[in-house]
Each structure stands twice: as C-alpha cells, then as structure tokens.
Amino acid sequence: MVGAKLRELAYVSQQRAGEPICCTAFDPLLDLLWTASSTGSLHSFICPTLDKYSVFGAHPSAVVGLLGAAEGILSVSSEYVRMHSRGGVSMLSFRDEDVLGITCCDWERPGAGRVLIGHSGSRISVLDLSTAYVASSVSVGQEIAVMRSNGRLVACGGVGGDIILKDFRTMKTEHTIDAHPGKVSSLDLKGDLLVSCGLTQRMGRIYCESVIKVFDIRQQVRPLSHIPFSPGATTLRFQPKFSSIVLATSASGAILLTDVQGGGADFQSYQVDCESDALLAADVSSSGELLAFGDSGGYVHVWGASEHALVNLHSLPTELPDIVQPMADNHICELESFSDVFLPPSNDVPFSAVDLSSPIRVGLPPRIVGRHLLEQMNAHDFVGYVQNPTWRRGSSYGSATRAVAGIRNLRQTRKIDIKGQSALAQRTSVTVLTTKVTGKGSGQNWLPKAYRRVEIKQSQFKLKYEEFDFSYYNKTRFAGLENDIVNSYCNALLQVLYFIPALQAAVTSHVCEREFCLTCELGFVLHMLDLAQGGTCQPNNLLRALRQIKEAAALGLVEGPEEWENSKEKSLAKRIQSFNRFLLEQIHKEGAGSVDPEAPSPLPSISNQLFGTMFRYHNKCRGASHEDVIQERLSFQVDLQYPAGKPNAVRPSFAELLEKSMCKQEDMRAWCPHCRAYVSLQQTRFPCSLPEILIVNCCIQREADLYYWFPDGDYTPTVESGKAGNPINGSKPTTSGIQAARSNWLPFRVEIALDPVDHSVTVIECGTEDTKDGGKSKESVISGSADSTTSSHAVYELTAMVAHVHDDFDTDKLLQEESEGHLVAHVKIPPTFSDSYGGIGLASPGPGLSPSTASGKLQLETTPVVLRGASTTSDWVLFNDFCIAPTSASDVVTLYGKQKIPCLLYYSRLEEPAVDKSIPASQGLPAGPLTIQPVPSGSQERSQASPISDETFKRLIMETRAPQDSSAVPKPYTTFLPFDMTTEFPLPRMLLGLDAEFVALSPAEKGTREDGGEYVKRPARLGLARVSVVRGEGVNAGVCCIDDYIRAVEPVYDYLTRYSGVSPGDLDPATSKHPVTTLKKAYLKLRYLVDKGCRFVGHGLKKDFRMINIVVPQAQIIDTVELFHLKRQRMLSLRFLASYLLNTNIQNETHDSIEDACTALRLYEKYKQLVAAGEFHDKLLEIYRYGRKYNWEIVKDVCETECTQVDPIQS
C-alpha cells in the first residue's frame, strides 16, 4: 500500500449525527465495516460505498472493543460482552461481577473462540464463548489500557507506560518493557515486531509522544528504532499484507504509512478531513486495500487506492434483506361496499366463500378430561389444575410426567375420511421410500439410509462421546470404527484387511522395537476389532504412527490442520487408493523384522505373498538396435486402464479392461542406459505370476470412465462418442457389446491365465453365457497353456469392495476434488468368521429401514440371484464406519445413480491361504517363505496367543533408566518399583489399579446447527501423557509398578495441568525429571498384562482404555464409577467418593495418576466390605442424599462426622 496513492473513497455519518465513534472494525467474511458509538449502538456499512446495512443498540454504555467473527460481531463495553448476528439478533450476553470495568479486548487466537479481556483489578480474563464461562484469570500488576495478541504472545499496555508480554498458554510473564513515561495509548503486534505509542508530560500538561517506538520481541526484547511522527500517534495498526508496514493516526486527522524496519525512510502521509473533529478510531481491512477512520463528529471515512478495493480477498456475498413493496392505498367512502376494495392475488379461499357444511381441519381433536380429574380439580382465577398423583420426592426427573402421559394425551376420536386418508398415506409412503436422485443421463435411483454418513452432533455442554448410542447402528456381531477423528477415511480399508485371515494372522503376531511401525499398529487394530464384538474401536495409534511417516505426508495421505491440510490429496478416492498402496509397501519394507525400515527386506513379506505381483518390463529403444532393457518391479495392485476419448455404444467388458491393464504396451520418453540419453521407448508390461489376492484400482477419474460401470440401458452413451460397433483404441470387438441388456457389468468371478511364451494374459468372466474369446472356448483357453501351474492360472472371486459415497448428489461436482463424501466397504465374510461369530443375523431390522425394506434389500439372500458368477447365497456385509448392516450381492454392484463410485476391488483365489502359526511371535513376520495351509474354523483356533513374550515384558520393565541431574549422578526413581519377575510374575486375575492422564493435542472443532445452536463436530484430540499401574494385592500392595510418561511426538496444544498434573517439559526426555518412554512400549506393557488376564481397578476406565487404544474384556475391568452409581442418577467423582467414604482429600491442586489409582483400589476394598456386611445399598443412598444436600461439594466438617473410615491398603 505504501507504493499506491491513497484517497478518500466515501464518508457518511452514523444514524445519529454527533455521536462520537469509539471503535471501527472490518468484517472478516463480508464486505462490511462496523462502527460503535459512545452510546452503545452498532452500525454496519457496505464497503467501499458506505451504504447502510444495519444498525441496532448493543450496550447501555460506550463500546470499548469490536471483534469480527464468522458468526457475527462481538462488542465489549465496561460491563458486558455481547455477540450479535449481522442483522442485530442477540446471540450471547455475558456479565460477571468479577469481570467489570473492562477497558480492552482481543482474540486469544484467530478462530479459537476465546476472548482476552482486560478489566479493573489489573487482571486479564480468558472468556470461552462456547460455554460463556471464564476459563482463567491472571493478574498483570498494573491497570491495562490496551491489549493485542499475535497468537503466541499477549502484549498489555498499562497506564504506567510499561508493556508486559505474556505467553497466552501459560499466562506467564515473558518480558516487561519500560516503553513510555505515561500511559500506553496504542500498540500492535505482528511476527517478531511490536510498535507502540504513548503519552508524556511536559510543563504540567499531557501530550502525545512525537515518536513511534519499534521493538524486536524475540528471545531478548530490544528496541529497533524510533520513528518520528510530530502530530503524536493515537492509533497504530499493522498492514496485513506486509510484515513491517504500520498505519499511524493522530487526533488531528494526520495519518502515516511507514516501513518500520527501514527506520521510517519509506513513508506516505495524508490528512483526513475531520472538520475540526478528533480522529478517534482506525482499522485496516484484511486485504490491506481499505482504511477506515471514525471521528468524534460521528462521521465514517473510507480510504483506498481505487473504487474496486476489497475488504477481504475472498469475501462471501452480502445477504441483503428482502424489500417488501408497500400495498397501494384504497380510499373508500361510507356509502361504498367493502367488496370494491382491491385485494392482492392469492390462492387462498376467503372465509366467506367456504362451505359451512364441509368439515374444516383445525388441528388436533380436543382433549378428554375424565370425571375423576374434574372432581379433584383446584381452580385459581380462570385456571384449573390437578396435582400429579404419581409424583414422589427423590424420583428421577420426568418420571412423573411420563407416568400420566396417557391420561394427559387422551383425545376424542377423529372422524377419518378413509378415501382421503388412503391417498395421503400413499403419497407419504412414496415420499419417504423413494428419495429420487435424478442425474444427467442416469435413471431414477435412491441411496439407502445404510449408506448415509452418520455424524455425531453432540451439544457443546455434552462433550462425552460415550453418550452416543452406537448399538442402534450396528445389530451385527462385528466391530465398527468411529469417524470422529482425523484420517478416519481409512476405516473402510481397515475393515477389508481385517477379513483377510492370512494377513490378520501375520500382523497380529508381529512385534518389533520400532516406535512407528505400521505393521505392529495394524496388528493392534485388527486385534481390537477381534475383541470388540458388536462394539466400536478407534485406530488412534495407527493414525498417530501414520502422521509421523514423512512419505505419508508427502503423498497427501494425512489430514489435519495447517500444513497437513494444505498438502493432503483433495480427492477422497485417490487418497484411499494411494493409502492402500502405501500401506502394503510399508508392510513389505518392515517385513521379516528388518532393522532399517527404509531398506526393503530381502525376505518375502506377508504383503508380497498375498498381494504382490512381479511385473516384467521390456523397454525397446526406437532409435537404436541394441538389446532391450528388461526390468522387474513389484506391484501390489493393478490400475484399471480405460479407453481414451469418449465412450461409444460398444463397450468392452470388465475382463477385457483388466486384461489390457495387466498386459499393457505404451510409448513414452524415458532414460535409456545404452544410449545414455532420454529417447523414445516402447514399453511392454507383463505379469510373471498371479497373487493370492488381486487388488484392482478402479481409477475412475472422468465421467466417461464411470460410463462402463453401468448396466446396459441405465446410462445413455454420448452421441459424439463414435459409431456403434467400432472398436475403442484398437480393442477387439466383443459379442458382449452387442448382446441384450446385462444385469451388472462387474463380474463376481474372473479366471486369469498367463502365457509366459507369448507374454500374454487371458481374462474371462466365469459363469456367463459369453464363454468365447476370439474363437476359443473357456476350456480351450485353460488347456491352451501347457505349462499352466498355480502361479500362472487362477480363478478369483470378488470378496471386498471399497466405494466412494456421495450423500449430497451433485452431477457437476461428482468427480471433482471438492466432492468429499465418505467411504464404505462391502465385505464378503469368510466362512471362518461366520462360524466364529455365530452368523451375521440381525437382532432387528437395520438402522433407518422398515421391516419390509430390511427383509428385501439388506437381508441375507437365501434364494439364487441372477448375477454373473455370484454364489447362490449372500454373505455380504456393508461397513459404513460404525454403521454395519447385512447386504446383498446385487446391492454391491448397484451404483444408485452415480452416488456410489467403486474405488478398490479385492479378488481372492478360491483356495484361501493362511499363515503358518508355528512361527514364533517374537520374530515378527516370517523369516522365510510363507507356508500356506488351510485356516481352521472356530474362534478358539482362529484366535492367537499373545505376541508379547515374557522376555520382552521383562526387558521393557527393566529398561527404564534413571534421569541425569546436574551432577551427572544417576538417581533412581522413587515413584514406582518395577515387577520382580522372579517373585511376582503377573498371573490371571491379579488385581491392579490403573489410571491415565491426557493432554490436548488440538482443540475441538465446532459447528452450528440450523437453529443457531452449537454442536461438537469433532472433539478435542487427546493424547496419552501418563499411565500408572499400582499393585492391588500381595506384599507390595499399594506400590506403583509402572509409571510411564509418554514422549510427545506432536506439539501439545494444552497440557491440562489442572486435570492431568502434567507440566510443560514433563514429556520431553531431555528436560523431564520423570521416566519418559514411547507410546508403543507403554502399550506393550499394558497389552501383556491384559493378555495375562489381570484385573484392572480404576475410576472411569472406559475413557482411559479408549484413549490408550486398547480393548480389555469386560470381565477384567472393575470400574468404581460403575460400582458406586445409582441407576439413572449422576456419576460420582473420585474426589467426592474418597472424601465421603475414605475421609481422604485428593486432587486439591492437580491430579496424580498414582494417587488416583491407589484411591480406586481403596474404594474397591470399601465396596467389598459394604457388600459383605449387607450395607452397600443403604450407604449408596446415603451418599446421594449427602451430595444433593451440599450440592456435591466437599464439606470438611460434615465429612469428618458423617464419613466412615476404611483401613488403608498396605504399602
């Protein structure tokens, strides 16, 4: 802006002329300018013309701060903090007796939803707008005049001239600057620069200082320069587009634009025509193209370089109110009739024209009040009421109302028009069951509710994710995966991999020492899915390891804030296809226990043996006659290649496309090692062998590619595609292209034969009438290859599909990057899983389906279906995150009007392989060739022993080293005593106390409902920070045996010290005074104890195990929050129970996991004592009566008299 010549574009007065303008602020989303007057009213103007948009009263006194937000405008006065919509609707009003005399405000961070407030008492308070609650308050030491934040530091300018810099996360004072002799009148922060201006006193009078002071606020604060400004600066603002350009204004109307890093050498000065009024407020738009000023005369001035200047670079369109045209006046005299009055056109029938003999629907029928109620009725004025006879003191809220609901809702019988009612029911049923989606060139289809994405919209005051009823969406015995975490798009692929028995057996028996090993984490996830039958799981640890692998971020596989979100692959279909390839390649690298994860192992891996296909590439140089270059490359999936150009009426079959994709010939320009230059090459690719599981990448990137997936007649080909019957790009004609309409294009079985002599591949579709291919029958094709072996010939059956589903159908954005949608998986359940889980039957119809729909559309088929290659019975299940429902084979190949697009296909050999279980688990993946043998059926044979050996657990227990203090003398930890594996070996049913602490890695993501209320779109991402295990029996009962602090591999957003007891630096091995280990090692210790059958006692173990990402059988969990809980009543905190039952005061200043685990063990001992004495129920009622009496607060004097003692556990 310094190089552009500025001028005044417009000026206008406020609603009431003469009211001084206290604050100005540009809107962050719309092209609006907000101003606030000294009387508390807010005005908005459309920029840059300054047309009036809205005006409303916000405060009873002068406004001291304006902050723009996405929801509206936040204004602050000396007593109130209020949020209004842009039209003036009140959204929030906050007032607190402890937060009065407000002088300034600013956002803690842009978009964080927390406001910093400076008020009387020399304090700063942090107001959380989502809860309307003061999150924290800290003293500054001086009265605050101005305050600004840059997202990392908060600068507070005081009336004494000092500037205090505080870290907004800890509110600790970082620096104190003696900046001015008098009050700091304005300051601003940007990056590492701070500019300020203030007041001074000369000859007994107060003046504005004639300099602008610039400071460098890096590690050591130092002044950079003093920029002269003779009129005296009153307001300072950094220019958003540049890092060092500052706008300075004075009360006389003089403005200065200067580069503070250049010492003020480059500057521009202007004068605002205020007509002797004082210039009080100024602001710069986010685009940097507009300046706004407000004066004491009530005038608003907008400056810029041109009339086309923008407020924001990407503003939303400004919503203007509808203008209601006034009705024309009708003048009549007393002698004229009212029928002569002109009425506006309307479809409503006047009441005077209604046939009084016909019934008129006016709502619900009248209620019936019984005679016994009328006899008991008490009348007061004109209101009669009857006391509810079912109400009892102490009963749950709403129980009395529900008991008399039948009496209150008793109504007279309505006279029903049978004919009209039947027509209405018919129209209603059509509307509900046929949600039509009409696309371009497609038929009429609908997307079943089982495919819809279910989002958990919790209220902002109910942040517990456990309150959501997952069982409603899953009536099967399989476990689902939750979709409220980042990178949850992987859920569909993880479900597919779980139902591959050979892969599951291999990865669940793999344990290595790498911190971020995807093979280990995948095995842990599959183990959780195996245990949590009918429940839900979270693959947190797997996705955490994925975020730490650089290759995953480079491929755009990682979702999340900031740099990950900017670099991720926008197309969800491409992202899941890339993730499938990356995961199998990473398992191949980590195979056979390789020490270096970057170097591929020379031994075969499980991914190589199941999915690997070795392709041989012949590169022939066109410009020379030297020998061909032959290379071999390993690939884990086949990318389906579609004909170039537009499709025509003759479409190739799936087998033809797969055949050309496996054996492909193309021309390219590449490096020739013989010519030592980039030359034109002809590359021919040929598979040397066939995998056990063939993965086909559908690669649907154009609408023309999607055309091939529709059955005949469902998709109209383009007229310009070509003449009917002509081959596409040299493809041979096929009889399938001219046959009658087909039921589905995707076959359920294919047969593939390799000819190593001719370097050709033959693919035919099994179970079809089209058994000819170029004059050969299916039998002749198979017998034509004399050297046909298992590696060169196989019959594959479709066993899984990953599909991209679009809930909101939009043809224009169907295959574009901004079309997000979600992923689902169709899996054909193997017989081993069906036998282990006892079938796939539903206890009730699936979610959102009527009984007729469930029986017809999503139930297992028991009759033959007319599908090519499909079996006579269906074992297919649809996995939609945690929504799981049986489906049919015909539903797998149905695209529902292009709302379901296939991404990955999994074809398995009819002879299913398995991993040799004789391989020791400690060796990880097999060290030699994989032995293929049949998988035994039954859950006992399918489940494997713990992969963690006793030697591994002993090494993990003893490897914790003592930290080094300043004297370099090792000092043992005093908080825990590890297991002595010779005398106290973990045994089944051993009693252990457990507690875990967490830190916040990212804030919660919130959204707004249609009614304006907020809901938690994605809860705050928590990370395990500390886990403690305490012995509950034996000689050392009450002594901690494991106390691990988890090393932080990601930046910590909030340590939650008040609730976790973890302080900054505790999770860093270089600075921590505690035993710091990796998350994986802590997991392996707990997993070993779980596999040994140990019982765990704790308070709120459900959340602890959820965040540790481990599934523990219910028989091994003893949760005191459930033991001391009265049905349909609130949960009791550990601190409250310890104070009442144990007369112990815990968690005074912060939490300690060892203390909490010991307290839970003592509560369990108290529980057993009360149950043995037969006093438990009475004591529980006594606890709840005490809690209600004292509002669940701990009263020390009462506790000492009412609570009973319990013998402490021996320690």
Automatic annotation (TrEMBL):
Binds 2 metal cations per subunit in the catalytic exonuclease domain. GO terms for biological process: mRNA processing; nuclear-transcribed mRNA poly(A) tail shortening. The keyword Ribosomal protein does not apply. GO terms for cellular component: P-body; PAN complex. Its cofactor is a divalent metal cation. Residues 934-948 have a biased composition (Polar residues). It holds the Pfam family UCH_1. Residues 479-910 form the USP domain. It catalyses: Exonucleolytic cleavage of poly(A) to 5'-AMP. InterPro entries: PAN2, PAN2-PAN3_catalytic_subunit, PAN2_N, PAN2_UCH_dom, Papain-like_cys_pep_sf, Ribonucl_H, RNaseH-like_sf, RNaseH_sf. One of its GO terms (molecular function) is poly(A)-specific ribonuclease activity. PANTHER family: DEADENYLATION COMPLEX CATALYTIC SUBUNIT PAN2 (PTHR15728), PAN2-PAN3 DEADENYLATION COMPLEX CATALYTIC SUBUNIT PAN2 (PTHR15728:SF0). Forms a heterotrimer with an asymmetric homodimer of the regulatory subunit PAN3 to form the poly(A)-nuclease (PAN) deadenylation complex. The linker, or PAN3 interaction domain (PID), between the WD40 repeats and the pseudo-UCH domain mediates interaction with PAN3. This is PAN2-PAN3 deadenylation complex catalytic subunit PAN2. It comes from Ceratodon purpureus.
